[in-house]
Specification:
Distance between the termini: 56 Å
Helix content: 25-40%
Strand order of the largest sheet: 1-2
């Protein structure tokens, strides 16, 4: 009888202890906050200026990657950020305008998502988002894109123990908030770096370029000279300079005259008429695989883009002064010049970026 009583008491005690535990799935293991720093590789690019309040961690980047590929962020579960920013196309879209959950097109061509850590002057074509974390939440709530509310997204993510665990690893708490989501996605996008193109190899060993690529490079960096045509170049580096081939500015590149500008771009943000038609100058890295081109995707090929700058600039009150200077004569590029220039642009493609498993879907 005493032995039976002891067994009953022990059984009751064990049952009581289990009833006091959190309601965890079978086999669920203890999850802890992990602040291990993420090692960012960027080759010959200058050190990036990562926000001090959101330094990259292994778990934060992992969470951001999960969210980037998560279709629960859209209203009907059919779209993720990666649906319009495909790794094989340097995280851009080959469609002129990406199609959202309602089957309707967006208003601008999807920008490539790489080397974001080297962009320090707002985000989106018109710069309406101050930081990447601000940009990251925009498409979720845009009715032409994911058309979802942040409240619904949080509820959906909170129903998954795997997400609660990852938020705890990344931020020290299972609580899922839109702020934490944005910080995680900012970390992942800051981790996507392109620095291993043929051009980057050329900087180490000039023999990897053929003659056409070398001549195209010379044309790219050589300034326009109205009075000495034989010394005049394509002057591309005026806007697309530096190791990231951009200047982080907003400029009108002569796509339309004043009366034909349908998308006022930067003016819509600053409310300044002098910003009419200005759009963000994007990186030319991976340009050969990010067609179509311009904010409205009007050009399908690099050859069309080169022709535009060579002889197709439209006069407008906000046209960049350096481009206005070339309108009178055009760049005077020959057919061979154009071919060489395009061949150089193709050397900016980074196949390591498009195939790196660290950037692919974790699901």
């Amino acid at each position: 009888m005493n032995k039976l009583k002891i067994m009953l008491i022990l059984g009751a005690f064990v049952a009581f202890m289990y009833s006091c535990k959190d309601d965890e799935p079978a086999g669920h293991q203890t999850v802890e906050w992990d602040q291990t720093p993420y090692t960012l590789e960027y080759g010959s690019l200058p050190p990036p200026d990562i926000a001090s309040d959101n330094q990259l961690t292994v778990q934060g980047v992992k969470l951001g990657r999960m969210l980037f590929y998560e279709k629960m962020l859209s209203k009907d579960g059919s779209m993720a950020c990666a649906s319009c920013h495909l790794q094989e196309f340097a995280f851009s879209d080959t469609a002129q305008f990406s199609i959202g959950v309602k089957g309707l097109p967006g208003g601008r061509q999807a920008m490539g998502v790489f080397n974001m850590a080297w962009n320090t002057n707002e985000f989106f074509w018109d710069g309406r988002a101050h930081l990447i974390r601000d940009q990251s939440l925009g498409p979720i709530q845009d009715e032409l894109e994911m058309n979802e509310t942040l409240e619904n997204v949080i509820a959906k993510l909170s129903s998954k123990q795997s997400y609660k665990d990852q938020f705890k690893r990344a931020f020290g708490s299972e609580e899922i908030t839109s702020e934490k989501m944005s910080l995680a996605m900012e970390q992942f996008m800051n981790s996507i770096v392109s620095y291993q193109s043929l051009y980057d190899q050329f900087l180490k060993d000039s023999t990897v370029f053929n003659e056409s690529q070398k001549r195209g490079r010379d044309l790219f960096f050589q300034e326009y000279n109205e009075f000495f045509p034989e010394e005049s170049g394509a002057d591309c580096a005026h806007c697309h300079g530096g190791t990231n081939f951009e200047n982080d500015q907003y400029m009108n590149n002569g796509l339309d005259g004043d009366g034909s500008i349908k998308d006022i771009g930067r003016e819509n943000v600053t409310k300044k008429v002098e910003d009419k038609g200005k759009m963000k100058v994007t990186s030319l890295r991976n340009i050969a695989i990010t067609a179509p081109y311009m904010h409205d995707g009007r050009f399908k090929t690099l050859e069309e883009v080169v022709d535009h700058y060579n002889s197709g600039l439209q006069a407008s009150s906000t046209l960049d002064p350096a481009l206005e200077q070339t309108r009178g004569t055009g760049l005077r590029l020959t057919d061979q010049d154009k071919k060489d220039l395009v061949n150089f642009l193709k050397t900016l493609t980074d196949t390591e970026l498009t195939t790196n498993p660290e950037y692919s879907s974790p699901f």
